[in-house]
Amino acid sequence: MSYEQLKLDNQLCFRLYAASRLIIQAYHPYLEPLGLTYPKYLALMVLWEKDERPVNHIARQMALETNTVTPLIQRMEREGLVTRRKGTEDTRQTIVSLTERGKALQEAASNVPNCMLDMLCKSGLNPDSVMEIVPQLDEIISHLRK
Fold it and tell me: pTM of the full predicted structure?
């Protein structure tokens, strides 16, 4: 008996997983010289947008749980990228702030998106067609977050 619905080629989730993994892998040569992993890069982007954020806000922006983000933030603190402190209004919150080193990485990383776009163009993809799927991915993410 054949179960067509269980074939890997018939899975949307596999395509999303493979694309995500391969894109993260493609970021590696641009992030490694900065001493960053992709998750650290994402956390920094949240903080570059607005510094001094609670851990739960960073986790929500990254679509992760706080128990996943907390160890990441702790590693980033040990590396001198961020500092942590208790919230003044709610001491149960941990507020994460960029250090000068973390702020300086914003300038160093500013060309990473362009490098990724160039890499996609060189591989034969039309960057406009890639960006056209962003609203569909946002919709999928929004529905799955509920």
Answer: 0.90
